[in-house]
Design brief:
about 240 residues; alpha+beta; three-stranded antiparallel β-sheet
Amino acid sequence: MNWRRLVADIHLWLSLVVGLQVLAWMVSGLFMVSQPIERVRSEHRLAEHAHADLASYGTLAAPDQVMAAMGAPVAGLSLELVGERLLYAVETTNEVKALFDARTGARVSPIDEAYARQIAEAAIAGDVAAMRVALIESDAPIEYRGALPAWRIDFDDAENLSVYIDAYTGRVVARRSDTWRVFDIMWALHIMDYRERENFNHPLLIAVTALALIMTVFGLVLLAIRLPQRFRRKTGETSA
C-alpha cells in the first residue's frame, strides 16, 4: 500500500505543478487547429491584381542608370508593380535595398506616408480606407518582428486589420488582425515563449513537458492499480 500511496502523491503534486500548463496546451492547441490558417494570415483580405502591361508605361529608364545610382555592386534588379506604380527594385551585394521609378529613374525609397497608405489600400480587397499611418523605426510592437523601418497602416474594420510595409522595398511584409493576435497569444502559451514567440527548444518547455510526461505515466500506473480493484468490487457487489 505504501508504494501505491507514493504513486498517488507524486501524481497529485505533479498535477499541481504542471496542470495549468497542460490545460493551456489543450486550450491553445484546440484554438489553433480550429482556425483556418488563411484567415489567420488575412489572405482572404488580399486584393486581386491583373498583370501589368509594360507597354502602357512608355519608355523606361535604363537599368544601367538605376544601378549606377546605387553606388555599389548590384546583386539583383527587377521590375515590380508596387501600389499600381512601376518601379525598379534593386539590391546590392551587401543587401542594401532601394526602389526607383521605372520611368524617371528617380529614387523612391524610403517611401513616404502617402505612398505607404496607397500601397496598403491597394493590397486589401474592398473599399476600406486606412485609418492611421505610422512609421516604426524602433521598438516595434510584439506583433511585428520584421525589418525596420516599416510603415504600419491600420484599417477601420471589424477585424482591426494592420498592414506593415517595408519602407525600403515597399512590400507588404505582415498583415495582423484580431484573429492573428489571439492566435499569437495561443502560440506563445503553447510553446511557452512569451517574448519572442519563436523558440520551442528552450529549457522551460523541455522541463515542463518532461514533468507532464512523468505525470501521465504515474496517472496510467494509478489507472492500472485502481481499475482492477474497482472491477473486483463491482463484481463482488453483483454476486452478493
